[in-house]
Amino acid sequence: MSKKPVCIVAGVGPGLGMSLARRFARGGFVVALLARRADELARYCATIEAEGGAARGYPVELTDAAALRAALGRVAEELGDADTAIYNASVWRQAHPMLFDAVQFSADLSLCVTGALVMAQSVYSAMQRAGKGSMLFTGGGLALHPEAGADVVALTAGKAALRAMVLAMAPALEADGIHCTTVTVDGAIAPGGAFDPELIAEQFWSVHQRPRAQWQGEAVYGGLPLP
Q1: How many other CB atoms are there within 10 angstroms of residue 149's CB atom?
Q2: CA 116 from centroid of its chain's CA atoms
Q3: N or C: which end of the chain has fewer CB within 10 A?
Q4: Span 208-226, pLDDT tens digits
C-alpha cells in the first residue's frame, strides 16, 4: 500500500492523459495509469518516476467493464483506495453520420461513457466510507456545440452523454462528500497554445482543489483560467 494519496487516471496517452498523470504526481499523489498498452504505460511511468513522482501502470481495455472493474480492484489492493479518479478516455473517429458503423458507434460510446460509469461505481464505496474524494471527467466542447460534430458523430454523442451523466450524478455524490465534475474542454487540444495539455491539466488540478462551497457539476475551460 502506498502512503501517498492515490489518483487514478483512466485513458492515458501522450497528450492530456499523461499531462494529468504528471500534474497529480507533482501534487503528491501516487498515480495509477490505465490504458490498453503495457509498453506505453511502462514508458509513461518511467517518465513520471524520473521526475520524482510515483506511478504504476495497469493495462486494460476500458470498453470491457469486467476487466476495468478488475483493474481498479488491483489498484485498490496494491496502492490503496483512490482519493481522486479521473476518466479521460474517448476516440476521434471521422465518418459521415450516415456511414458510421453501428457496432463501432456502440463501442465508442462505451469507451466514452460506460467506462466512466464503471470507474465511478468502482471507487464510490471507498469514497463514500471516507466521506470525501474527487471524480473528474474530461468533457468536450462538442457536448456544448453538437452542430459542429457531424463528422465525429460518436464522439459528439459520447461527450454529450458523459456531460449529462456527470451533471446527473453530481448532486447525489455531493451528499456523500464526493466532488463529481466534468472539466469541459471547449477547444481543440494541441501543444503550444491556450489548449496545451499542460495548461488543461492545471485546470483539472485547480478544480480538484476547490472547497466544497465552490463545487459544480461542470467547469468549462475555454482557453482562459477557470474562475
Answers
A1: 20
A2: 8
A3: C
A4: 999 999 999 999 999 988 8
